[in-house]
Amino acid sequence: MLDKFILLVEDNPDDEALTLRALKKNNISNEVHVARDGVEALDFLFCREAHADRNSASQPQLILLDLKLPRMDGLEVLKEIRANPLTKLLPVVILTTSNEDCDVIGSYELGANSFIRKPVDFDQFMDAVRQLGLYWLVLNESGDRR
C-alpha cells in the first residue's frame, strides 16, 4: 500500500524529471506515482484498467496536476476528481506552464486548491516546490480522514 504519496500528472518527460529532481533536492521523500495523461490519472485514482488491483482506500496526499495533457486535459480530470466522493476532498495543485487567465479561473471554479505556474528558472522552481511541499505535505490538515 502506498502511504502519503504524491500523484504527479505530467506528460512532458523533462517537466516530470525536473519536478522529481526538485522534490528530491528539497528532501520531500514521499513516494511519487506518475500518470502521463488524464485518463491514466483517473484510472489510477479510481482503480480501473491497469490499476484495477490497487486499493482504492490508498489515495494520494497531494495531486500535482498539469493542465495541457493528452487524451483528457487537466480541467476535465479535476472535474472528475471533484465529482467523485472517493476523491472530492483530495488536495489538487495545478502545476502548469499555462499563462491563460481562463485556466486559472477554470481551475478554481472546478475546485483546485492552488494554481502554480511553473517557473522557467530552475532555482525559482526549486523554491516553489520547497514551499509547495512544506505547505501541502507538512502543514496542511487534510479533509480526508479515512
How would you characterize the overall build of this protein?
It is a single chain. The protein is of the alpha/beta class and 146 residues long. It has one domain (6-138): Response regulator (Rossmann fold), CATH 3.40.50.2300. 40% of the residues lie in helices and 14% in strands. The chain is built from 5 helices and 5 strands; from the N terminus they run E-H-E-H-E-H-E-H-E-H. It has a 5-stranded parallel β-sheet, with helices on both faces. Helix 4 (101-109) links the parallel strand 4 and strand 5 (114-117). The protein is globular, with a radius of gyration of 14 Å. The mean pLDDT is 90.
Task: Walk me through the topology.
Layout lengths: L5 E4 L3 H13 L6 E4 L2 H8 L16 E4 L8 H10 L8 E5 L4 H9 L4 E4 L4 H18 L7
Parallel strand pairs: 1-2, 1-3, 3-4, 4-5
Output the keywords.
single chain, 146 residues, alpha/beta, Rossmann fold, five-stranded parallel beta sheet, 5 strands, globular
Name of the top-level CATH class: Alpha Beta
The largest sheet is: 5 strands, parallel
Tell me the helix content. 25-40%
N-to-C terminal Cα separation, in Å?
14 Å
The topology string of helices and strands comes to EHEHEHEHEH
Overall form: globular
Q: Roughly what fraction of the amino acids lie in strands? A: 5-15%
